[in-house]
Specification:
Helices cover about 50% and strands about 5% of the residues. It has 16 helices and four strands. A four-stranded parallel sheet has the order 2-1-3-4, with helices on both faces.
Length: about 325
């Protein structure tokens, strides 16, 4: 377990699930479905961690049941007085051990809002940042049903709103890459992953010191039978959304008004060349979005640190 964890970064609907499924087929790493518990456990246990209190909180985390592990699996891996990162890593290590893998990774797009926290918790982590044309991401996300679990008040409701998220999170990940350096940060494109899968996956494996096997790219059954859409991702990843065909001119314009400079910087074509220029309206909307997210995170932190947190999250049977 001495190898550093591999964290997949990407804005929602950027293809991170596809990349996770491919890499999880490697014999060298186990990357579970989205975890979501890192920020709340980090806030509740700033370290050094009280082992028993930490394990008691784990009994309230639904992700463990979804991953098929229990607190008893994690407990032997949590040392008394561990720092926060080591205690949280023990959960992933337990999952990897159950999968018979020597190393763990994570893929949770929501953590794009918590990159400085990830860097503090896991100072040796490697990052693979998967970037996709934000207009295609917006089409995919905004096309989800209104009652989908990921569609809440805190998430974008229109193309311009998604553009604000896309710009903010990609800038944050690239800033992290500048901070940690090329030895720990690799940037790849979804479009390349689909068009040249073997070349891209080999580059990720080389970067992360993972064994590559062609079977990682084979179509077929996925281990998560409860999620048949994961199987479809491996079977037909090229059937992706195309903003140039499906997105309305009004939505493309509103997206590019906010994200045009970054789209151009990344080499994506623009429907409106004037969108390359930075403008005050877009800057103001981005500032407003970032202030709103900061306020939302502050409220979430207060709730999670509150003694009432345990009342809202009772222990789960079987954990």
């Amino acid at each position: 377990m001495s190898s550093p964890p591999l964290l997949i970064l990407g804005v929602r609907r950027s293809g991170t699930t596809l990349l996770r499924l491919i890499l999880d087929r490697s014999t060298g790493i186990a990357i579970p479905d989205e975890s979501h518990f890192i920020p709340q456990l980090a806030r509740r246990h700033p370290g050094p961690v009280d082992r028993e209190t930490f394990l008691e909180d784990l009994r309230r985390v639904r992700t463990l049941a979804r991953w098929g592990i229990t607190v008893a699996d994690v407990a032997p891996l949590v040392e008394p007085g561990s720092d926060t990162g080591a205690a949280i890593a023990a959960v992933f290590r337990a999952y990897a051990a159950k999968a018979g893998k020597p190393r763990w990774g994570d893929k949770t797009p929501a953590y794009m809002r918590y990159l400085p926290l990830l860097d503090r918790l896991f100072p040796d982590a490697l990052y693979v940042h998967l970037i996709r044309d934000g207009r295609d991401c917006a089409l995919s996300f905004l096309g989800m049903p209104d009652d989908a679990p990921t569609r809440t008040w805190a998430h974008p409701q229109d193309a311009a709103g998604f553009a604000r998220q896309w710009v903010t999170e990609i800038r944050a990940a690239r800033n992290l890459g500048n901070h940690v350096g090329q030895q720990r940060y690799l940037e790849i494109r979804y479009e390349d992953l689909v068009a040249n899968s073997e070349q891209v996956v080999r580059s990720v494996c080389d970067f992360a010191s993972l064994p590559f096997d062609p079977s990682m790219l084979e179509q077929g059954d996925v281990e998560l039978a409860a999620k048949p859409h994961h199987r479809r991702l491996l079977e037909a990843p090229s059937k992706r959304r195309d903003w140039s065909v499906e997105m309305s001119a009004a939505d493309a314009e509103s997206f590019e008004l906010v994200a045009g400079p970054l789209l151009a910087e990344l080499g994506y074509p623009l429907s409106n060349r004037n969108a390359r220029r930075r403008n005050r309206r877009a800057a103001a909307s981005l500032a407003w979005y970032r202030a709103r997210i900061a306020a939302w995170k502050t409220v979430a932190a207060l709730n999670q640190r509150s003694p009432l947190w345990r009342r809202r999250h009772p222990p789960l049977d079987g954990l």
